[in-house]
Write a structure and sequence with these properties.
alpha/beta, Rossmann fold, 24 helices, 25 strands, Dimethylsulfoxide Reductase, domain 2, about 25% helix, Phosphorylase Kinase, domain 1
Length: about 750
């Protein structure tokens, strides 16, 4: 068997299409045969000769529970995967894993998995054979289907590696450019500011080189960019001289709970606080880099008293922050969800980045990242702008065929966008899915896919924390549990064969990946151990490929900032904070019991939703823990039990994301509420992102009560001093320097 296509086209098909790339090895022919690497894939339930009953064997793979791309080792015994841990060879997570990574085992064995293809017949989905399912696909997207490319679309979560390559290739073959990449939890605004002000949309952050970290709502220990990697770097930051952490946010996150100084700024005013700090630093002459007169003129408006009035942060604390940034330089200043996701989020994040520029942090705590050499394999990062674009396309009836994979827009979209209603106007909807979620159950054809522990794939993390970039391999840890499920890559390859006969020479996605890895360009294989003929086996063992990366320097520049704080809306006086948390994430893990019963890191609530209120606001409403309140926006209302906590701004109410599913299996359905549903359709002014933290609400007493299920009792020591505390300075003088 051979792939009868020229070398350049062959490389492009495999994702290695960059200029100047070459096949590994100098003596390979133009036509590369698959026979050289042919091998028989034997079921993991048929034990290998070296397998000893009762003794586990570890295999390398990649975690798919979020977009960070952590490397995994899975322990397999008697053909069944029992446990996962982090891959020590991965520069992303260095052998560690979070609760979501650990829960991938329970997702894999979940009893609510879809086990066979389903097709809509009348008003219901009924099981069909794969032949019938593929016949339906052929009739819709085959060469004789007559489908118009611009009326075909696909919405996915973040994708990278060869999954991104085959998605691009399929859409190109059909003639479509409609690939919507959607993630509720994202860093799109941060990336836009980094691209414009530094020349690198995902720069490397050196937490361990900072004397102080100032975070404006970036929950880097919970949900921001690459949590497991961040946790490891944070541990380094706390060792030795022990850096100090300052967290500014309207609602306490996991990162805020670890901070030395936690500051509850009024929601939406973080940018004004950053400019006030910058102005004070420049007035005192503490800045390491001069700023143009035009920027200085803008900063002059942000006096200490003016900033205190807008943000609610006392003058003495603003001065303290500025002093700490100066005294403990270099610093690292970052911005996350509560700062990004407002109507002027770009300007707010740019104000935060300005602090890094004037304090001379660029090149020290913020450096250029390693870019994977092949652009086609780099991560296509999800955002909320594409969700808005999809909603508009559905409303305007511009799609006849829509594919969905690794995303659930019917759940994550605000109700006012009418995504669920819009999906009904699409003539043929195909869902690649493991579970019966809200979007899947609206499809006309449901194709059951393997779990992350049964499938092949490659992943290139968007955030590359090492000096070399990394590609991570995902390989099956065991034979598929359900015989009627298929790999996502295999299904996509079957669809590609309908349009491009060159792909017909790959019998399955495994052979496609093996061929791709065996023919990696020289600029990628430089750090792969062993001769080229052993590349595949080396990658299978290690689970990663470290690629050579160019060391491009950052190019700092200032941008115009027109930060404005909107006036209070008397009809809706409070700010809604739809908080994300490590665990249920955006709701994609609500069907995993382990994560449902894992207590929230701050509230300690399990198996439900709650509305977090400041004691002052709770007193005004006359409510206590367990009472229900109604949270109402211009787009709808939800009811949730009250959890009273000092770690939230009095003008804010926080309802965590993740619950409120109408479908999604027995562990998720009908549990809690979904705050995303009542968001107003406001957009960030410069990037077009959905401003998820800009919705104003009113909170009223619903006059109902149930016992709030959460761990722990009192949040105070009631003067009994069970836990002794000392100052940071005292720690440095004693144990801190040990």
């Amino acid at each position: 068997m051979s792939v009868k296509v020229n070398r350049r086209k062959f490389l492009k098909m495999l994702g290695w299409g960059g200029a100047g790339t070459a096949l590994t090895g100098c003596d390979l022919p133009t036509t590369v045969t698959l026979e050289e690497g042919k091998e028989e894939v034997v079921s993991y339930l048929m034990p290998e000769e070296y397998a000893i009953p009762g003794i586990g064997v570890w295999y390398a793979s990649t975690c798919t529970q979020c977009e960070a791309g952590c490397g995994l080792h899975g322990r397999v015994r008697e053909g069944r995967v029992l446990k996962v841990e982090g891959n020590p060879d991965s520069p992303v997570n260095h052998g560690k894993s979070c609760m979501m990574g650990q829960s991938t085992v329970q997702s894999h064995y979940n009893p609510d998995r879809i086990t066979s293809p389903m097709m809509r017949k009348g008003s219901t989905l009924q099981s069909v054979s794969w032949d019938e399912a593929m016949s339906a696909l052929t009739s819709k997207i085959g060469p004789d289907s007559g489908v118009k490319g611009d009326r075909v679309g696909m919405i996915t979560g973040t994708v990278s590696g060869h999954q991104a390559v085959i998605i691009d290739e399929l859409l190109a073959q059909v003639g479509s450019k409609n690939h919507y990449v959607h993630e509720v939890i994202n860093t799109s605004v941060w990336s836009s500011v980094c691209r414009d002000m530094l020349g690198d949309e995902m720069p490397k952050l050196n937490y361990d080189k900072a004397g102080v970290i100032l975070s404006f709502g970036a929950d880097f220990l919970g949900t921001w960019i690459s949590p497991v990697h961040n946790m490891g770097e944070y541990a380094k930051f706390r060792k030795g001289a022990r850096g100090s952490l300052i967290q500014v946010e309207p609602k306490m996150t996991l990162t805020g709970g670890n901070a030395d100084l936690w500051i509850p700024a009024k929601p939406g005013t973080e940018g004004a606080l950053a400019l006030g700090i910058a102005n004070f630093i420049i007035e005192r002459g503490w800045n390491a880099v001069d700023v143009p007169s035009s920027i200085a003129k803008t900063l002059n408006q942000y006096t200490l008293t003016a900033v205190e009035k807008v943000t609610g942060v006392p003058v003495n604390k603003i001065k303290r922050i500025a002093s700490m940034l100066t005294e403990r330089a270099p610093s690292l200043v970052i911005a996350g969800a509560s700062t990004e996701n407002h109507e002027n989020g770009y300007d707010a994040v740019a104000s935060v980045m300005l602090l890094n520029l004037i304090m001379g942090n660029i090149g020290k705590t913020i450096e250029a990242s390693a870019k994977f050499p092949e652009k086609a394999l780099r991560a296509k990062q999800g955002n909320t702008k594409d969700l808005l674009l999809l909603a508009k396309a559905l409303k305007d009836n511009k799609l006849d065929v829509l594919f969905t994979y690794n995303t659930n827009p019917a759940f994550t979209a605000p109700a006012v966008l009418q995504v669920s209603e819009g999906l009904s106007s699409v003539g043929f909807k195909v869902a690649f899915s493991m579970f019966p979620d809200e979007t899947t159950l609206q499809a006309d054809l449901v194709l059951p896919i393997h779990s992350g522990m049964e499938d092949w794939g490659t992943h290139v993390p968007a955030y590359q924390p090492d000096t070399s970039s990394v590609l991570s391999l995902q390989q099956p840890l065991m034979e598929p549990i359900h015989k009627e499920t298929r790999g996502f890559g295999d299904i996509m390859l079957s669809m590609l064969k309908l349009r491009n006969k060159n792909f017909g020479d790959f019998p399955d996605y495994y052979s496609y990946l093996q061929t791709a890895v065996a023919n990696m360009p020289a600029d990628v294989t430089g750090s792969v151990e062993g001769a080229s003929k052993d590349i595949w086996s080396n990658v299978l063992q290690k689970g990663i490929v470290k690629a050579k990366a160019s060391a491009n320097a950052l190019t700092p520049k200032l941008v115009d900032m027109k930060f404005k704080v909107k006036h209070d809306n008397s009809g809706y006086p409070m700010h809604l904070v739809p908080s994300a948390r490590l665990g249920l994430w955006d709701g994609r893990h609500a069907n995993i019991p382990w994560l449902q019963e894992f207590p929230d890191q701050i509230a300690k609530v399990v198996w439900g939703s709650w509305a977090e209120l400041h004691p002052k606001k709770a007193s005004e409403l006359g409510v206590k823990n367990g009472d229900y309140v109604r949270v109402t926006s211009a787009s709808g209302s939800i009811e949730a039990q009250v959890y009273i906590h000092k770690g939230i701004h009095p003008d804010a109410v926080s309802v965590p994301m993740g619950q409120g599913h109408d479908e999604f299996g027995r562990y998720a359905k009908g549990r809690g509420v979904n705050p995303l549903k009542i968001l107003n359709p406001l957009m960030e002014r410069r990037t077009g992102e959905l401003a998820t933290h800009a919705t104003r609400v009113k909170v009223t007493n619903a006059h109902k009560h149930e016992k709030l299920v959460h761990l722990g009792g009192s949040e105070t020591q009631v003067g009994r001093k069970f836990v002794k505390t000392i100052s940071v300075d005292q720690l440095r003088r004693t144990e801190g320097e040990a």
